[in-house]
């Protein structure tokens, strides 16, 4: 900062202090809504806490974590989302984007049709899919019946509940599709021409030109979607509640992850433990588990950012 | 395509090229038909859910319980019944308050932060950006328990204020998006304003803001929609009384209270979705631009 040879312009001086001033509300926000709660979470995790009494119990909450079968269940469910739902959604968005940019007629209309579902309010979309996939009267199984196929129980069958939500996720892939479209259109045209002259077919062109050129965006999409999968909550919660026909909005009779805990994700279980059973201390242990996992993926994402910013 | 003016190729070669040209043209036409057919088929599948909702929303109670796909009679009154049987307008009002105040607070607080991160050179700038991305990526559930306890002690649970007030201190996603955009504004503009004697505030208001209008519009729309559609936040804080719910919460409980009436549930779903679609059509360009802005440049 200190200039030896040439003094910086007058208006550059004291920029650090001025920046601090500009950032101070946000710094306060981060401290209050991020740093403080994170430290409290660690503190509470060593206690039994039900919002009224606070009792130090050492590592008991952590010991319980190892015995809690539902942590294993939710971890398996999350792994399913990460390994199947995320790649399926990203791949589908990419294919859709490729398709749309190749269209010559009706591009605007088709692009709008593919984009719109991603704007449908999450609750509305989820209820819609529970309705569409209703095993008895839902239109999807009706249409399948025309072809003589017996549709599954969808949201009522633990084996099909996650695939059902994956279909919802594919339906709402419009935002990702637009991002991929932008990336694909950014690939310089002459690279394709050069590849074509070298005799590369469409698949070879995709592998040798498109893929490397959009790699940063693809990686970004994968990691953000994995982080999103770790946070997966609302769709699973609404699907469980609506499909199980749960009537109590307070949720005291709520069976998390219906059917058969197949939609129980870690955030879901955390919500139940903390805000239904009021075992806040143990909820904090689950929160720290979620924090650790998310941090790993956030760090990978940050590496991507740095690389992308160095390029640009 | 193959014919060049300067050097006419020999006849045999030319014939071959013409032959290839015809074949290539035929292939191009086939590819054209295939891609368009595939796109239209997919588009129909994307539209189908909305069509089925619409049709069911117009059925009678009894018919909605059957497997019929086409309504026998068109019961437009179902929409009115949704308003009678639920507090839909009240929920919309609550949601609007959350979304509108949330958006205003977010802009007021996040624009200056993004400006400082994009323009000032100071030690710890990288760290600050790192913190922005980290808070953006962290599941809200991670810090939910202690924050909830604080709001409970302040007596503000059972309201949407715990969701609105924090936005006065910045929103990570909006800061991130705005910073990315502000970085693309050439430094010369702001430097020139500074040399001319503008203060930081004046530079932001007179030079940066007018240029950043598309980004600000995108951020505003995103924040508005985020709040409008938020389910997790209101689930924690809005409480259980019907008149305090938001649209997303209300719709989720609606099915429970009218468990056999799929027609009403679908009518309510359409009513909740319609405003979003209308806003999209009014602000289409901003949406698409905003989305592409969120992707990193490779």
TrEMBL record, chain A:
Keywords: Cell membrane, Membrane, Transmembrane, Transmembrane helix, Transport. It is found in: Cell membrane. Belongs to the binding-protein-dependent transport system permease family. This is Carbohydrate ABC transporter membrane protein 1 (CUT1 family). It comes from the Bacteria. It is a multi-pass membrane protein. The keyword Signal does not apply. Its main location: membrane. It comes from Nonomuraea polychroma. GO terms for cellular component: plasma membrane. One of its GO terms (biological process) is transmembrane transport. The chain crosses the membrane at residues 20-46, 79-101, 113-133, 168-188, 209-230, 280-302. Pfam families: BPD_transp_1 (PF00528). Residues 75-301 form the ABC transmembrane type-1 domain.
Automatic annotation (TrEMBL), chain B:
Keywords: Cell membrane, Membrane, Sugar transport, Transmembrane, Transmembrane helix, Transport. It is found in: Cell membrane. Belongs to the binding-protein-dependent transport system permease family. One of its GO terms (biological process) is transmembrane transport. InterPro entries: MetI-like, MetI-like_sf. It is a multi-pass membrane protein. PANTHER family: ABC TRANSPORTER PERMEASE PROTEIN MG189-RELATED (PTHR43744:SF12), ABC TRANSPORTER PERMEASE PROTEIN MG189-RELATED-RELATED (PTHR43744). It comes from Nonomuraea polychroma. The chain crosses the membrane at residues 29-55, 96-118, 127-151, 163-182, 203-226, 264-283. It comes from the Bacteria. Residues 92-283 form the ABC transmembrane type-1 domain. Its main location: membrane. GO terms for cellular component: plasma membrane. This is Multiple sugar transport system permease protein.
């Amino acid at each position: 900062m200190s200039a030896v040879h040439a003094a910086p312009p007058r208006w550059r001086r004291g920029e650090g202090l001025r920046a601090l001033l500009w950032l101070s509300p946000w710094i306060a926000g981060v401290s209050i809504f991020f740093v403080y709660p994170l430290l409290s979470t660690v503190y509470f995790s060593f206690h039994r806490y039900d919002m009224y009494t606070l009792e130090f119990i050492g590592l008991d909450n952590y010991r319980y974590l190892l015995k809690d079968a539902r942590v294993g269940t939710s971890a398996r469910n999350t792994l399913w989302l990460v390994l199947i739902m995320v790649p399926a959604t990203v791949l589908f968005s990419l294919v859709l984007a490729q398709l749309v940019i190749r269209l010559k007629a009706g591009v605007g209309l088709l692009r709008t049709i593919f984009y719109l579902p991603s704007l449908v309010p999450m609750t509305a979309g989820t209820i819609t899919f529970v309705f569409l996939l209703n095993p008895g009267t839902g239109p999807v199984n009706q249409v399948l019946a025309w072809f003589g196929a017996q549709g599954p129980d969808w949201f009522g069958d633990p084996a099909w509940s996650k695939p059902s939500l994956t279909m919802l996720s594919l339906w709402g892939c419009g935002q990702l599709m637009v991002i991929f479209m932008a990336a694909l259109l950014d690939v310089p045209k002459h690279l394709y021409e050069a590849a074509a002259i070298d005799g590369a077919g469409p698949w070879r062109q995709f592998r040798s030109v498109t893929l490397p050129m959009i790699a940063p965006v693809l990686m970004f999409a994968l990691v953000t979607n994995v982080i999103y999968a770790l946070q997966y909550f609302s769709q699973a919660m609404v699907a469980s509640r609506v499909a199980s026909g749960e009537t109590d909005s307070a949720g005291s009779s709520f069976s998390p992850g219906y059917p058969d805990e197949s939609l129980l994700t870690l955030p879901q279980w955390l919500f139940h433990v903390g805000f239904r059973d009021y075992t806040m201390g143990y909820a904090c242990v689950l929160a720290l588990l979620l924090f650790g996992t998310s941090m790993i993926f956030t760090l990978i994402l940050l590496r991507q950012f740095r690389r992308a910013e160095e390029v640009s | 395509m193959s014919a060049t003016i300067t050097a006419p190729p020999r006849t045999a070669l030319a014939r071959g090229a013409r032959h290839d040209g015809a074949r290539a043209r035929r292939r191009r036409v086939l590819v054209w038909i295939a891609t368009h057919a595939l796109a239209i088929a997919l588009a129909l599948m994307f539209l189908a859910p909305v069509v089925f909702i619409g049709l069911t929303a117009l059925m009678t109670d009894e018919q909605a319980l059957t497997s019929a796909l086409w309504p026998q009679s068109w019961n437009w009154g179902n929409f009115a019944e949704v308003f009678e049987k639920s507090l839909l307008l009240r929920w919309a009002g609550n949601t609007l308050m959350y979304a509108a105040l949330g958006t205003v607070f977010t802009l007021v607080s996040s624009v200056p932060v993004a400006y400082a991160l994009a323009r000032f050179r100071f030690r710890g700038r990288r760290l600050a950006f790192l913190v922005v991305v980290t808070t953006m990526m962290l599941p809200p559930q991670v810090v939910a328990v202690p924050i909830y306890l604080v709001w409970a002690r302040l007596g503000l649970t059972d309201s949407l204020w715990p969701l609105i007030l924090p936005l006065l201190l910045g929103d990570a996603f909006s800061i991130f998006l705005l910073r990315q955009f502000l970085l693309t504004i050439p430094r010369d503009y702001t430097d020139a304003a500074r040399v001319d004697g503008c203060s930081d505030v004046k530079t932001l208001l007179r030079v940066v803001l007018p240029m950043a209008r598309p980004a600000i519009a995108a951020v505003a729309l995103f924040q508005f929609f985020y709040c409008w559609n938020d389910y997790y936040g209101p689930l924690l804080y809005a409480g259980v009384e019907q008149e305090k719910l938001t649209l997303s919460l209300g719709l989720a409980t609606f099915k429970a209270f009218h468990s056999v009436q799929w027609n009403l549930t679908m009518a309510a779903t359409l009513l909740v979705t319609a405003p979003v679609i209308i806003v999209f059509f009014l602000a289409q360009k901003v949406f698409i631009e905003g989305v592409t802005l969120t992707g990193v440049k490779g």
